[in-house]
């Protein structure tokens, strides 16, 4: 295909990633697709298997994004949150591994929740009043979520009422 160039890259090699980023012009996009799937359940997973899977599936993507995002931003692009995607993938893997043993696993994905941690971020901003306004302005419902907004969904996911729900990403984000 015209305009497409390929390179061989060991994405577990941080120095190789940095060198490639320095060698290429700013990119229009970045598609992270390296990965491995462990055979067996978490009970069969050795520490070495786990470390390698994290390094290849998540850390390599963080390194790639870190190396190439400055160029993407110069070209008005941005990347998403790999760590959140890793949590969703782990949720699906655990659900699949243990569904036959009647163990369910789901991921609750909240919007911006008014917690002590968020209040700490707001308080540490140069202008805390404006920072809080900015957080609220990004919420389609016009307010921050509360722990009480999350609780009914959590209770439902832990109850028999959700006995046929597993491996799901459940959004409680106020429409974000």
Brief account:
The protein is 48% helix and 5% strand.
Largest sheet: 2 strands, parallel
Strand percentage: under 5%
Q: Measured on Cα atoms, how large is the radius of gyration?
A: 20 Å
* Sequence stretches where pLDDT stays below 50 over 5 or more residues: none
The number of distinct β-strands equals 2
What features would you describe in this structure?
With 176 residues, the protein is mainly α. Helices cover 48% and strands 5% of the residues. The protein is built from six helices and two strands; from the N terminus they run αααβαααβ. It has helices at 14-23, 47-74, 82-98, 116-123, 128-137, 147-158; strands at 107-110, 169-172. It has a two-stranded parallel ribbon with strand order 1-2. Helix 1 (14-23) runs parallel beside helix 2 (47-74).
List its traits.
single chain, 176 residues, mainly alpha, two-stranded parallel ribbon, 6 helices, 2 strands, flat
Secondary structure topology:
Blueprint: H1 14-23, H2 47-74, H3 82-98, E1 107-110, H4 116-123, H5 128-137, H6 147-158, E2 169-172
Parallel strand pairs: 1-2
